[in-house]
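Troubleshooting log. The previous structure file for this entry was overwritten by mistake, so regenerating from the original sequence record. Sequence copied from the archived sheet and checked twice against the printout by T.R.
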Amino acid sequence: MGESRNRVGGAYALTTFAPIVPGHEDELRTHIEGLPTGAESPLARLDTLHLSRIQIFDHLVHQGPKHDLDHLESNYLVFTSSFDGDLDAYLDLICDRIPTEADGWWSHCVGYPGTADRAAFKDWIKVHQRHTHLFASAYHGGTVAKVMGSDGERP
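Regenerated output below.
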């Protein structure tokens, strides 16, 4: 059932919430903000990736005077992405194509084992995964390769 919650057509949605090691928030934020964007982004090396976002959740928005103020137990690194194929194949792609970069952001999270131990990495991601109950795709049934076309450029 978990797999079907995270899938639309051939696309899979991955969301992870990982607690950040206390005191690492500023260093992690600086690291993320220093990553290249566009074609130079490490995420651009993941050729099955539709989109991705890396962000820090460090507080919750107060919902107003009639609601209690909620606090997070920790600051969290949130990683979201949608991609073609299965989760294990995508995690293998991360280990193969952007291991240094992935270790660069997740190494600031509690208990992160690194990409060098592929099995431990996959297990850690799956422990921190939050399943997607509603997921939409702009190109239902379209893979990244089909959307980009034969010239390799996005329409």
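The first strand starts at residue 7 and ends at 8. Archived copy saved in two places this time.
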